[in-house]
Amino acid sequence: MNEKTEMLNCKEVIKKLYDFLADEITVEDVLKFKTHIEKCGHCNEVTLFHKKLKEIVKNSTKETASEELKRRILASFEK
Amino acid sequence: MRKEEITHEKFLELAMPLVDSLYSTAFRMTGKKMDAEDLVQEALLKAYGAFDRFQEGTNFKAWIFKILVNAGISNYRKKSVRPQTSSYDEFEEYYLYRKLNKTQSYDSLNKFDVLDELFGDDVKKSLETISEQFREIIILADIEEFSYKEIAEILEIPIGTVMSRLSRARGTLQKLLWEFAKENGYVRSKE
Ligand SMILES: [Zn+2]
Asked: Which of A73, B156, B169, B180 has the most crowded Cβ, counting Cβ within 10 A?
């Protein structure tokens, strides 16, 4: 491995975890991150746990607008 | 077609697919169906009025959410005092995981099973319990999946603040989830 693809250590992986899940790290770091969790069971578990937690939060609260609201909105824009 | 008609159509074409998302966020902000519906309508009318200032090619969703969030703040909650700058621990957003790691669960549920058990209502209740500021940022980041930069624009705060507020919000949410997990007997705390 050359210096550019230097490994991330566990501490760095955990620090970047939420940014990784939010797709807010560089492509290069994504690669390093993935390389690390492929080999490190602990960091892999921490990642999967938080990924799942994020999904649960996302799915817990979806509300949808009523058809009636949508009709009212469209009506309010009619001239 | 006349110019206004094109504008009118263009606006609806961009805005209508976002009504569910706007409503969902409005509902979380106001807690009431009627208020949420009024807020969505108000935001859409405001956005339409300001549509000539929207720059084509930029992010319409972030733009309209900013209008919604601002309208929501001025109508439905007192402009909040600056977020408390309480010290927080760097790894607060790993609270739940750390707790579960140190805990024995009933029926040998593993950490992932506990998450499954938490599904739905507990998360919803926890989200309703945390402060408006925390709830708002979790909705924008984890539910609507805006980027840090977009959230910074919507809330008009620096990116650094977005990130630190998010960790505190997640930490607070996880502490509540932990309480629910204990209450419901998914885990047995040794403490
Ligand atoms: Zn590791």
From this structure: B169
Same-domain pairing of B92 and B75: no
pLDDT value for B108: 57
The DSSP 8-state label assigned to residue B140 in this structure reads I
In a domain, B191, yes or no: no
Q: Does A3-78 carry CATH code 1.10.10?
A: yes
Residue appearing with tokens 């200032």: B53
CA-CA distance, B74 to B165, in Å (whole number)? 21
Which amino acid is it at B66?
Answer: K
Q: How far is the CA of A40 from the centre of ligand 1 (A)?
A: 5
What stretches in chain B show pLDDT beneath 50?
A: 79-85
Q: Which domain holds residue B60?
A: 3-79
| C-alpha A20 to ligand 1 mean position (Å) | 14
Do the Cβ atoms of B12 and A53 come within 8 Å? no
Contact list, B167 vs chain A (CB under 8 Å): 18
Per-residue pLDDT tens digits for B17-68: 999 999 999 998 888 899 999 999 999 999 999 999 998 888 999 999 999 9
Q: What is the pLDDT of residue B190?
A: 55
Nearest to B44 among A22, A56, A73 (CB): A73
- What's the complex ipTM? 0.85
Under DSSP, the state recorded for B55 is P
Q: Under an 8 A CB cutoff, do B123 and A61 touch?
A: yes
Q: How far is CA B113 from CA A51, A52, B108, in A?
A: 14, 11, 9
CB pair distance less than 8 Å for A57 and B37 = no
